[in-house]
């Protein structure tokens, strides 16, 4: 698989029943666990190079929820972000400065990181938000909902807290193409206007949308519900995880504009062996520069496939534990060959306290913890400064108003005195 000169990839797998687990994709070894989170579908995201965000819904109640923030060196959350309502899907800006979460009300909530301060909330769908993603250049936030719609928001408007709160006022597009809830959204293409949105739905279709003009390009009919989808590194094919436990492969796009559309362009083909027999394929991700596909199932098993021949080369996870996998995220940028051991709470470890090895990101655990804490403290100080400045401005405006009224009274009395003397 990956050569020694390549950057190491770590697979993160979340679950609504068990801790987040980190795997070494190249060997299949379990690196450790991030404990304390019970994450729903799409409720796991990387925030920059140092933070991991996970939606958490308490098993005791469905009325309270939060987002847990981890770094790579602590198995417990370093920060609990309060949200106005239970949220599931998460997406982050590429630099990790902002985190977006989709709520059960259909609202999207934008938070600053790492402090978790709520920047704004705005309506995006009339039913729960089911999917969130960013396009490749980070200029657009794209959401899918249980109402069957897909909405596209320019980030510059989302982050402008002074703009209107109605999504219809600043949404770039709103696609109404599915008759059932949207289950997955993927973006192909490196440019904002040159990108293609692929949306999957419980209605059994995958639809392609142009961001250049907002038009529907084509539809692909699948033999079952598609719960997850990913595009290969060459953007030639897409790989979809079905509710029947199978992986389906389809053609992403025609190579040339003047090339005739082949008869199978709107068809998918199932890989013939190594299916997830224990349930639906809940998540898929590409690894090893597109040479491998990773898929997860409701039974808790994770399979690593060779894309070239569609065969399983490795199985990860304990499918006998009964923990369904809700999301997969592949973390890159971790240097191979630089390993450091950290014990206790300062390093990723399993639930029994055993130390695990994790690839170094080039920073020590203490440095990252210090950086996060200093950033949080700095944001709190800046917030105090902003509040103080706002109070000073309000006080100055009140003082100016008082002086204006006094000046008016003085002028009025002066005029009255002049009239008396006359």
Write a brief caption for the model.
The protein has 422 residues and is of the alpha+beta class. Helix content is 15%, strand content 40%.
Strand content: 35-45%
Radius of gyration: 26 Å
Average per-residue pLDDT, rounded, comes to 79
Helix content: 10-25%
Shape: elongated
Question: In DSSP terms, counting alpha (H) and pi (I) runs of 4 or more, how many helices?
Answer: 3
Low-confidence stretches: 1-5, 256-263, 335-370
Class from secondary-structure proportions: alpha+beta
The neighbouring-strand order within the major sheet is 3-2-1-28
Separation of the first and last Cα atoms: 103 Å
For the report, how would you describe the main beta sheet?
Answer: 4 strands, antiparallel
Q: How many runs of DSSP E, i.e. beta strands?
A: 30
Can you walk me through this structure?
This protein has three helices and 30 strands. With 422 residues, the chain is of the alpha+beta class. Strands 3-2-1-28 form a four-stranded antiparallel sheet, with no helix packed on it. Strands 4-5-6-7 form a four-stranded antiparallel sheet. β6 (65-71) and β7 (79-82) form a beta hairpin.
Key structural traits:
422 residues, disordered N terminus
SSE arrangement:
Layout: E1 8-14, E2 20-24, E3 30-34, E4 44-47, E5 51-57, E6 65-71, E7 79-82, E8 87-92, E9 98-103, E10 107-112, E11 118-123, E12 129-134, E13 140-145, E14 149-154, H1 155-158, H2 167-170, E15 173-176, E16 182-188, E17 196-201, E18 205-210, E19 216-221, E20 226-231, E21 237-242, E22 247-251, E23 268-270, E24 281-287, E25 292-297, E26 302-306, E27 311-316, E28 327-334, E29 339-341, E30 357-359, H3 365-421
Antiparallel strand pairs: 1-2, 1-28, 2-3, 4-5, 5-6, 6-7, 8-9, 9-10, 10-11, 12-13, 13-14, 14-15, 16-17, 17-18, 18-19, 20-21, 21-22, 22-23, 24-25, 25-26, 26-27, 29-30
């Amino acid at each position: 698989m990956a050569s020694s000169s390549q950057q190491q990839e770590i697979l993160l797998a979340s679950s609504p029943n068990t801790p987040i687990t980190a795997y070494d994709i190249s060997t299949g070894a379990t690196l450790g666990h991030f404990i304390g989170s019970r994450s729903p579908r799409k409720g796991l995201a990387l925030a920059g190079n140092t933070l991991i965000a996970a939606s958490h819904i308490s098993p005791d109640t469905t009325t309270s929820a939060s987002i847990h923030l981890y770094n790579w060196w602590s198995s417990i959350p370093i920060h609990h972000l309060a949200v106005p309502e239970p949220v599931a899907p998460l997406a982050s800006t590429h630099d990790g400065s902002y985190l977006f979460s989709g709520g059960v009300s259909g609202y999207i909530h934008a938070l600053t990181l790492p402090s978790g301060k709520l920047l704004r909330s705005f309506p995006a769908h009339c039913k729960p938000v089911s999917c969130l993603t960013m396009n490749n250049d980070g200029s657009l936030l794209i959401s899918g909902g249980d109402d069957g719609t897909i909405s596209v928001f320019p980030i510059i408007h989302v982050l402008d807290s002074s703009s209107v709160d109605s999504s219809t006022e600043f949404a770039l597009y709103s696609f109404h193409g599915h008759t059932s809830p949207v289950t997955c959204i993927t973006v192909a293409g490196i440019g904002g206007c040159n990108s293609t949105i692929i949306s999957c739905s419980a209605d059994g279709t995958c639809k392609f949308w142009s961001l250049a003009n907002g038009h529907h390009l084509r539809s692909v009919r699948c033999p079952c519900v598609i719960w997850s989808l990913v595009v290969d590194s060459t953007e030639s094919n897409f790989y979809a995880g079905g509710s029947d436990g199978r992986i389906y492969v389809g053609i992403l796009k025609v190579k040339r504009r003047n090339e005739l559309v082949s008869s199978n362009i709107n068809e998918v083909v199932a890989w013939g062996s190594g299916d997830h027999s224990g349930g639906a394929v809940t998540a898929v991700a590409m690894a090893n520069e597109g040479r491998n596909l990773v898929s997860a199932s409701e039974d808790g098993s994770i399979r690593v496939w060779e894309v070239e021949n569609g065969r399983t080369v490795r199985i990860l996870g304990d499918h006998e534990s009964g923990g369904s996998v809700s999301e997969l995220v592949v973390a890159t940028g971790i240097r191979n060959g630089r390993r450091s051991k950290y014990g206790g709470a300062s390093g990723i470890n399993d639930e029994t306290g055993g130390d695990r090895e994790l690839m170094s990101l080039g920073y020590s655990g203490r440095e990252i913890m210090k950086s996060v804490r200093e950033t949080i403290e700095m944001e709190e100080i800046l917030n105090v400064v902003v509040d103080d400045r706002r109070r000073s401005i309000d006080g100055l405006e009140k003082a100016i108003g008082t002086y204006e009224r006094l000046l008016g009274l003085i002028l009025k009395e002066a005029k009255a005195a002049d009239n008396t003397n006359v």
